[in-house]
Write a structure and sequence with these properties.
heterodimer, A: 11 helices, B: alpha+beta, two-stranded antiparallel sheet
Amino acid sequence: MDKVAHHKNSSSPASIQHPGTRTYENRERERSRSSMASSCHEVEVPGKPTETGTALLETATGAIQGFGPVNQIHQHLCAFHFYGDDMTRQGEAHHFCAHLNEDVRQCLIFDGPDAGVRLIGVEYIVSEALVLTLPDGEKPLWHTHEFEVKGGVLFMPGVPGVVERRDLEKVCKTYGKTIHFWQVDRGDALPLGLPQIMMALTRDGQLRQDLAKCTCTLSQKFKFFILNLENFRAFSSKFLNSYSLFKRLVNELEGVGFIDFYVAGVEDKFSVSFQKERENRAYMSGPDHGIHPLANAAGKGLKTHLREVDLPATTTAAHAGRVFT
Amino acid sequence: MSSSDQNPAPTPACGTGTSVPPPGKATTVSSQLLDMGAQAVQALKPVHQMKQHACSFALYAHDLGRQVEVHHFVSRLNQDVLQCAVYDSDRPSARLIGVEYIVTDAIFESLPPEEQKLWHSHAYEVKAGLWTDVGVPEALQSSEMARMAKTYGKLWCTWQVDRGDALPLGAPALMVSPQAAEPGRGRAELVRGRDERYRIDSSAQGLKGARVEMDEPEWINPNADYWRVHGKGFAVDVAATEMKRHAPFP
């Protein structure tokens, strides 16, 4: 989530506090650096800033290298994922996708749309026909996209609705397999622990509204309260027609001490309305054969475990012929 | 339900023992046009941060005899942390088979021991000439390689293409790096194949020789490369559980 300002109040929702007091200037700096970074737990990745020599070298080497698979990435989809064992832990997921063919897409998932965001997982998006060929033990790992599309919450930032809907008609019928490696939502500064099987929204009531819409805390002067800011948005949209202007207004209000805390939701950041999109997409349909009962974790939940195993004997001759090309 | 070290039940999508392309119809012209249109208006900034293409080899942590050539497309989060999209080749049709995170020794030392056992060292892989930025002259990449030799990596494989999976099947699998000891040595024919294809000489006359003088890490944390000390591997299981939830599912 876009953290425009940090909590000053200790009773505010979880946010890792950095030591030291924050000056307004500091916050300005952080704000510009992490503009649109999507984790609400804004923990910085440890490490020194990239040295100029390193950056220059990468530019030089990058210029003479080929980036075959990366150049195939043609599409940015934004949606939400939650953990296979915990729906309450949800996050914004930015998919950067390439078609392997008409039925298979492979996506890198980042926690935001900007440079400097974290690569948190991968998703494979596969047509219904192919998913139905998968072994039954595999199907629970796959989730449906019908609700995400028809519910209006999956979108392609910046792509006009008419064009977007042409593709979402297809996505609506697909299944996805998502694995996250970096649990940024719990504040991990580095990718720790095991990969997690992720699920996607399948009905109303699941999406945490603070991810969708902006959250704002007005200062003590106005008594402390958190708004799910329909009113503020409505008010501001009368005067402001873009997110950047809206953000400037928020900054101004914060500057004079009227706002303590503001986090933009996805709808604000990308100027989309899930409700409006839902209406636009009402005509779309999901998988032709209906949602497979084993998909979506077979209706339960999924958890990963690490198991120590004996290593097979040194020579695995059986694999010798499986040389990978 | 599913384990990284178990073969999936036989279906059209899995296990013929050879590497097969994913099933599915050729990408339609309309999809291509939509993609081109999307690309024209979408910035795709995170993707443009991938500025390094490295090639090396990876071994499944549950069966070191299973080894694959891996192509890393690397983006840098800062001087000490890299994140890589890992593909099975550098062709446009390459499959996204996993993700690797790379951190410097200083960061690695700060991790808890339980976490460290999932990571592998890069010193041997680099010094042996296995890890190389494809197409970049050694003189230009040597400083980056010297840095890389002191790093640790954590690589998750999500598509076991070497066992012939036509689609990504099963649980994610941990992978490790080649080492100077069996059963974790890189297989010679695999290295030879890569070297011939990219006209790389990773032998003692080539990259390996050129990197002899490269500084080695003063020590490699014994918690990394778990199999070398413990002789055991790791597999990942996906099991059914109750989901914590605030609304019905699905």
